[in-house]
Each structure stands twice: as structure tokens, then as C-alpha cells.
Amino acid sequence: MIYVVIAFLWTSILLYLILGGADFGAGILELFTSDANKTKTRKTMYRAIGPIWEANHMWLIIAIVILFVGFPSIYTTMSTFMHIPLVLMLLGIIARGTAFTFRHYDAVKDEMQKIYNPIFVYSSFVTPLFLGIIAGSTVTRSINPQANNFLDAYIFSWLNAFSFAVGLFTVAICGFLAAVFIIGQTQEQSERERFIRKAKAFNIMAVLAGAVVFGVSFIEDIPLTTWVFGSWPGVAAFILATISVIVLWSIWHKPYTNTMRFLAGFQVSMILFITTWEHYPNIVLLKNGDALSLLEEQGNAKTIDALAWALLLGSIFILPTLVYLIYSFQKNPATDKT
């Protein structure tokens, strides 16, 4: 049953990256939109993220619950040494959701909109930035369980160039996902072309940011290249991701919006697979050379069994309703062929 729990953990992280990433990316797109087009972007964005913005944090909650219940030592280590970026990320989620709600549903349109708008867009940037920083910090061996001062324990555990490079890469991925997702929600050809240009730009930015991640990993002696190219599954995933990028660029101007979304999500899944496969089952690499393993740090066997059954039974109710939620918002999309 432990492998069922691990599969749900990996899947929940992946779905949060894709759906939450598209959600955060909507604000990132607005941040990089000219004033003349901001109003159109917001209206299109409301239609696009409607199906997911209420539900996407469910995947984050599931991942946290799995770690808390099934892998308490891993949860404790991460929540202790990563508590500063975790708090900043959570504050970003709260600020973003609050600003989005008030600026979209507030019955009174007044000067407060000038406050809601920047809170929404900047928190949309900051939140995935710190999400990426946390992810990067788990593999840098910067977490020191023997740290005896505040800076080593709670600052230098995440404050490093590689983690920030991963954070910026995550921001670029979010902007890319949002642009691809929104393409199918546009009502005018000019708007569609505008979001295609943004998708292309963020795709290029993601590739460049990925190159920076590799460069920084070499400088900081993080074996990222070995993790990616050191085994045939990693190489295969890299090749598949590259092919999906090529295919995506070949259909930008064709009405295959669902195919575009699938390819974008597939790229993210391959990236997550590449970065987790080689050091699995280790999920947190520590400075002293040790690692926290999903297999060695699992909780009581009965707890794992109960957690696995809860996840399996819960998915029976959650997944169909989520699919119907997305379907109900897609009844009147822009013309689409798949």
C-alpha cells in the first residue's frame, strides 16, 4: 500500500503544478500585459481559470496531508527548515485568492481595485517563485539537521542560487501553462494570436530558465545532469518532452487547443519525472550526506494502509466531480478540434 500512497503524492504534486500553475500563471500573464490589454486579459482569464481556481489548492492540501500522516519525519523536517519560504508561499496564496475574489466579485467598483490588482498579480508571481525555491531546496543538500544557529538552520537551507533558479523556472512554467490554457478560451482571433505569442514567449523563457538551472547546478556541484541523463528513463523523458515542444510549436495556429493543453501538461509531467526518478525514493537530500526516503521514513503500516484506502475511496468521489466541474465550464468554449 505504500506505493499507492507514493503514487498519490506524486500525482497530487503534478496536478498542483499543472492546474495551480495555470492558475498562478494567469496573474503572471497580467503582470506582463500592457495597460491597453489588461482589461481584455482579465475578462478572458476569468473564463479560463474559472474551472480550476477554486479547486486547485485541493491538490496541495492532499500532498501536505499525505506527508503529515504517512511520512511524519519528512513533514517535520520540511516544515521546520523550510518554514520561512513555506509561510511566504502560503501568504501569497491567501493574498492572491483574497484579491481575486474582491476585485472580481465586489459589488462596488471603486479605488480599492487599484489595491486588489497589484496584490493579485505580484502574489501570483511570488507564490510559484517560493514553491520552486522549496522544491529546489530539497535536492541541494543545503538542509542541515545539525545546524546550531538560526542562519544555517532557517536561512541558508533555502537561500541559494540553485533554489532561486528553480523558482524562476517555475514562474516561467506557470506563465506558459496559463497562456496555453487561455488560448482556447479566447473569443476573437486577435486575442488568440496575442496569447499564442505569450505562450511562445513563456515557453522560450522556460527553456532559458531551465538552462540557467543546469548552469547553476554545475557551479554548485548538484548532479542534475546525472539525474537527467544518467539513466535511460531520464533520457527517454527528456526526448519525449523535447518532441512534445516541437509538436506544440507546429500546431500553435491550428484549432487544436485541447491538444495544446495536453502537450503543455505532458511537458510538466516529464519535467517532474526527470527530476524525481534518479534519486527516488529519496525526497529530501540532507547536507550531512543522508537523505529522507519515502520508503524508510514511512509511518506505521496500519496508518499507511488506512491512508491508502482513504485516498483510493476519496478519488472515487473527487475525480468525477472535478471532471464534471471542468466540463461544465467548457460547454461554450471557443471553437476547438482535437
UniProtKB/TrEMBL annotation:
Keyword entries, A-Z: Cell membrane, Membrane, Transmembrane, Transmembrane helix
Q: Give a Gene Ontology cellular component term annotated to this protein.
A: cytochrome complex
Biological process terms in GO annotation: aerobic electron transport chain
Asked whether the keyword Transmembrane helix is assigned, the reply is: yes
Q: Where in the cell is it found?
A: Cell membrane
| GO molecular function terms noted in the UniProt entry | electron transfer activity; oxidoreductase activity, acting on diphenols and related substances as donors, oxygen as acceptor
Q: Which residues cross the membrane?
A: 6-32, 53-75, 81-103, 115-135, 155-181, 201-219, 231-252, 259-277, 306-327
Membrane topology designation: Multi-pass membrane protein
Q: Which residues form the signal peptide?
A: none
Main location per the UniProt record: membrane
Similarity annotation: Belongs to the cytochrome ubiquinol oxidase subunit 2 family.
Protein name, as recorded: Cytochrome D ubiquinol oxidase subunit II
Q: Please report the organism this UniProt entry assigns to the protein.
A: Pelobium manganitolerans
